Amino acid sequence: MSEPASAPRATALREIHEQAGATLVDFAGWLMPLRYGSETAEHRAVRRAAGLFDLSHMGEIRVSGPEADLALDYALVGHLSKVKVGRARYTMITSADGGVLDDLIVYRLGGEEYLVVANAANTATVAGALAERAETFDAQVTDESADHALIAVQGPRAVDVLAPLTDAELGAIRYYAGYEHTVADHPVLLARTGYTGEDGFEIFVRPADGAPALWRALMESGAGQGLVPAGLSARDTLRLEAGMPLYGQELTADLTPFDAGLGRVVTFDKPGDFVGRAALEAAALTSRERRLIGLASRGRRPLRRGQEVLRDGTAVGTVTSGAPSPTLSRPIAMAYVDGDLDTATGTFSVDVRGRAEEVDVVELPFYKRSA
Amino acid sequence: MSVPTNLGYTADHEWVLVEGDIATVGVTAYAADALGDVVFVDLPEPGTEVTAGAPCGEVESTKSVSEVYSPVSGEITEVNAALESAPETINQAPYGDGWLFQARVFAEPTDLLSAQEYEQMTKDEE
After folding, report:
1. CATH number for the A288-371 domain, one of 2.60.120.10, 2.40.30.110, 1.20.1250.20, 3.30.1360.120?
2. Chain A interface, Cβ < 8 Å to B
3. ipTM surpassing 0.95, yes or no?
């Protein structure tokens, strides 16, 4: 990936982050809060109470028109025409060879209108591919990323934080549903989605300049609920504990969704052709080349991306994401291993700069919230 | 963040307090803050000889691994064992309970920065 030569773009919330003492870093061309104080404390606050995230770097691409549904069925691996208005779907866009270009959440806003949410680093690629693939359909593709801010409230107290600010009946918004509502007098898309393993909401604000007032209203509402601003560092450890893949680590253009163990997102049972169908049908039949497993260390030394996984001293795979887990109080990692590897027997370790750190193979996700 | 004036500093963001022939070494508050939450510390065993300016251990935070450079040449006499179970002490009290190790120095270190010089250096880095 090439670094953008220009200075990173600031979100509408930059001043608020600076006032809060955030450490700001260039992330995929955006100046984003990495942490405000202790990232471990932010992580724990999201598990116990609630955290507020600025995710305005994410891409928002609108697909609308009489054939928007058919265009997305053709462009993506999922069956988007079947998604009901007000619901959302986790899906992927692949190239013709089946390699994952990005993982996406697609919201159906209306019969002829969808909002595709892409990772910041991939937004231009996704918007370009969607526009190209929609050409033969009666549908328009518009990259509206610059117009949107995105704020997430995540954690068991998210409903309590949000409730005083909206007339929306929050209990009626199911997981992976999203509707247009008013929050703190701002018209928003209010969705029950997230990337932390907790209950929570993602709030799409348009135009983006409404975001600071909305952020302040949420912080005020959450003051008695234990709400804290949380940065990308906490977001990464939260999603890792929740066993959620990150594009660029667990997902890349070299892997099909089947390689990543996420073949369930591919719907062959939909009408018509779609980009990647032939390659993915072949990939579904061949045995998976690799498998994503969870590792928890018996030591204290953090496991990191790129480190080698060993079984009885023999290299069998590579760590894709690793971090100390605040919830489990031990280092954890996700790693790709050979698909047919026996993980039930043998002694597993990770090569941490020349030292074999003994690890346990554990079930993913590492953390699941109690219902 | 005030920099204690009774300590010497290195450009690698360690602090050192020399009392007689014993030097106590830690990382500065500026470095601890830049690292984020410290989650693991790897230090030389007592009896190990360390060389001024050479790496002698590691401090790992959530996101990164950083080497610890010894500010002095000498022999390790004691390491802060409390950091093994509570490495976050480095963030909480970098100049106090978060100290890293003590060494019997072979010679008084000469090229340390004063608090004022170190503070100026960190300001220039920003």
Report:
1. 2.40.30.110
2. 23, 34-35, 38-40, 233, 237, 300-302, 304, 323-324, 353
3. no
